[in-house]
Amino acid sequence: MLSFPKDFFWGSATSAYQVEGNNFCSDWWEWEKNLELEKRSGKACLHYELYKEDFNLAKFLNHNAHRLSIEWSRVESKEGFFLDKELRHYLEVIEYLRELRIEPIVTLHHFTNPLWLAKQGGWENKNSVFYFLRYVERLIHLLCEKVRFWITINEPIVYTYHGYIVGIWPPQIRSLWRARRVIENLTLAHIKAYKLIHNIYKRKKLNPPYVSIAQNLIAFVPCSLNLKNRFATYLRDRFYNFGLIERLIRAKSLDFIGINYYTRNLIDVVDFKFQNLCLDSCSRHNLLEKNSLGWEIYPEGLYDLLMRLKRYKLKIFILENGICTENDGLRWEFIYRHLENICHAIQEGAEILGYLYWSLLDNYEWDKGFLPRFGLIAVDYLNYRRTIRESAKRFALVCQSGSL
After folding, report:
1. Coil/strand/helix, residue 319
2. Angle formed at CA 339 by CA 337 and CA 342, multiple of 5 degrees
3. How far is Cα 142 from Cα 150, in angstroms, rounded to an integer?
4. pLDDT per residue over 292-337, tens digit each?
5. 0.85 cut: is pTM over it?
6. What 3 state SS string does 223-269 have?
7. How many angstroms separate the CA atoms of 143 and 146, rounded?
8. Are 298 and 263 in contact (CB under 8 A)?
């Protein structure tokens, strides 16, 4: 039997835009108008109205933590004007989690922006950091007595890559120069938000908070150990996985390392050109089982990454790990094998705070629409009925016992 620490956090995650529905003032809502009808987020999962039902289910499944996000475009739908109604809503959401004795892990930015900010250039705008800090300050003052764990920004590298390098997410730009400006502003926003959050807690004489980002990590694996593949693996590790983490550690702006992990990238580079080094992958030997989006299932990669993160001497929180599949048996196998690798990493000295499965609910998976099914709980989008999957029940036993 494999055992986890007594104070381990067990639970799942959601993001506001993907589950709430009707986020009219977001840049994503505006962008979706150009997509096919079936990909529109619309009412999503009606979580805005049904959050108590959803969190009751999480409690039934023995979760003691839940990661959620605040939808910036709801609380500041117009520049500088914060809506008391929406602020009260999120306060009530957090208070209900506390009532259930579920630890709230609160994300302040999960990919979406207020439309007014997008129209001013989004994160390319040098004032974006100021706007973000104004929003953060309002939320921290509101929630600081209810929240210990804060994630400032979800997956800043993923956000920049999809929106400003390959250009498949809004604002659909392909420019390394503009992408660099965005990542610089996101980095500065986190560093300043980290200091702001700590200062507010200190002024209010509260126990220090735990502040981090959620950094998506990929297991980059060379298909063969030739020079091109090894060099490309090094570059991708530096740019995608560890570069930002190290920069934020140097700035003393991480209380722990928050990570999301899903898959590996098998690297087989054709040429030493920059584009090849950054993007080439092997399509002949990627024979591992895959989720419904074609991402390879590679639990060993999580173990390897956790071992590499040990050198930073910070605790690690696994904020997302999950699979989209119609095969619920495969979902449980995915969870079990990843937890096995996490436990082995703990046994070898990695300090892990907790494990949050992505996601509590089936939800709107960005440009992929509603077809990918990530949820521990199935959602019928015709009537919004929730159904607990068998994998969720098996995971619930692990959450209850703290062992595999």
Report:
1. strand
2. 115
3. 13
4. 999 999 999 999 999 999 999 999 999 999 999 999 999 999 999 9
5. yes
6. CCCCHHHHHHHHHHHHHHHHHHHHHHHHCCCCCCEEEEEEEEEEECC
7. 5
8. yes
Q: How many other CB atoms sit within 10 Å of the CB of residue 127? A: 11
Across 70-145, the runs of DSSP E, i.e. the strands, are 103-109
3-state secondary structure of 345: helix
CATH of segment(s) 9-216+313-401: 3.20.20.80
Query: What is the per-residue pLDDT across 215-248, written as a single tens digit (0 to 9) for each?
Result: 999 999 999 999 999 999 999 999 999 999 999 9
Cα dihedral 220, 223, 226, 231 in deg (nearest 10): -20
- Locus of tokens 């098996």: 394
Instruction: Show contacts of 35-40: CB within 8 Å, 24+ apart.
Output: 35/367, 38/369, 38/370, 39/367, 39/368, 39/369, 39/370
Q: Quick one: which of 92, 189, 109 has its CA closest to 143? A: 92
**What is the separation of C-alpha 169 from the centre of its chain, rounded to a whole number of angstroms?**
16
Structure tokens of 334? Answer: 């995915």
Q: Is 351 exposed, middle or buried (0-12, 13-18, 19+ CB in 10 A)?
A: middle
DSSP secondary structure code for residue 207 in this structure: P
Phi/psi at 211 (nearest 5 deg)?
-125, 135
- Report CA-CA distances (Å) from 200 to 76, 108, 154, 343, 365: 20, 16, 22, 36, 34
Q: How far apart are CA 194 and CA 198, in angstroms?
A: 6
SS3 of residue 144 by DSSP: coil
Label residue 130 left, alpha or beta by phi (over 0 means left) and psi (-120 to 50 means alpha). alpha
Question: Quick one: tokens of 68?
Answer: 């959620």
What is the arithmetic mean of pLDDT over 363-369?
A: 95
159: exposed, middle or buried (C-beta count within 10 Å: 0-12, 13-18, 19+)?
buried
Helix (H, G, I), strand (E, B) or coil at 380: strand
For the stretch 228-238, what's the b/e string if a residue is b when 16 or more beta carbons lie within 10 angstroms of its beta carbon? bbeebbebbbe
Mean pLDDT, residues 123-134 taken together: 98
- The DSSP line for 301-326 is HHHHHHHHHGGG---EEEEE-----S
